[in-house]
């Protein structure tokens, strides 16, 4: 009984019309003892938001490779931020602001969730269904926080859950998806049920098709999701 990881990211219709790059980024990795999933949404008002989001994914991977799984949240976040700044090089942090949604798990089922900024982490775990939302009360309108804006540990939402049974799992998603969901409680179990019998290639194709044919009228934002579930 192992874990299945799948991810997809598509440009929003607004960016396609304007010939802009996808400002979201996603990364999934598996290794012998665990796995990692990262989703990031670059702040569209910043000139290098696409670089910022891709750098978030790389920065988190660098951190989890260098640190033990039980590293304190504050130390992990500090390491991610240092890595992110290093990856940006000469690009100013304020020009590459990006959110962070992270799920770092062990094969035992212990899973660490961290979030900075908007989007959502939905999960179905041992203690039931839950939602992480990192939107700060100090932001207004469509402005969110993220790396490059926030320097406070208190802006992060951190939680540990356990995924030890089949059909348990989680979804990390940018706000292009989460803001349109009407049935958040049932989203993860429904997607898991649909994907359990799909192969890896067909599963990715199915998710991508769902995002490209998003049913919400006049939607324009990029859409990115990472799914992790226990077989």
TrEMBL record:
Specify the domain of life of the species encoding this protein: Bacteria
Do you know which InterPro entries this protein is assigned to? PPM-type-like_dom_sf, PPM-type_phosphatase-like_dom
Top-level taxonomy: Bacteria, Pseudomonadati, Pseudomonadota, Gammaproteobacteria, Oceanospirillales
Q: Which SUPFAM superfamilies match?
A: PP2C-like
Q: Where is the PPM-type phosphatase domain?
A: 11-211
Organism of origin? Pontibacterium sinense
Pfam entry (one): PP2C_2
Name under which the protein is recorded = Protein phosphatase 2C domain-containing protein
């Amino acid at each position: 009984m192992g874990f299945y990881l799948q991810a997809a990211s598509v440009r929003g219709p607004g960016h396609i019309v304007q010939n802009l790059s996808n400002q979201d980024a996603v990364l999934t990795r598996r290794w012998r003892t665990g796995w990692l999933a990262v989703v990031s949404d670059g702040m569209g008002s910043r000139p290098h938001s696409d670089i910022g989001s891709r750098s978030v994914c790389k920065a988190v991977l660098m951190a989890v490779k260098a640190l033990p799984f039980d590293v304190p949240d504050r130390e992990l976040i500090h390491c991610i931020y240092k890595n992110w700044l290093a990856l940006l090089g000469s690009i100013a942090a304020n020009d590459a602001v990006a959110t962070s949604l992270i799920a770092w798990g062990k094969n035992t089922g212990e899973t660490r969730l961290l979030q900075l900024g908007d989007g959502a982490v939905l999960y179905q775990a041992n203690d039931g269904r839950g939602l992480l939302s990192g939107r700060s009360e100090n932001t207004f309108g469509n402005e969110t926080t993220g790396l490059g804006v926030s320097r406070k540990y208190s802006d992060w939402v951190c939680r540990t859950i356990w995924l030890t049974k089949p059909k348990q799992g989680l979804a990390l998603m940018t706000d292009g998806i989460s803001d349109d969901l009407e049935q958040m409680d049932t989203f993860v179990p429904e997607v898991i049920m649909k994907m359990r019998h799909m192969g890896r290639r067909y599963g990715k194709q199915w998710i991508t098709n769902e995002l490209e044919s998003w049913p919400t009228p006049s939607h324009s934002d990029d859409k990115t999701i990472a799914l992790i579930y226990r077989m």
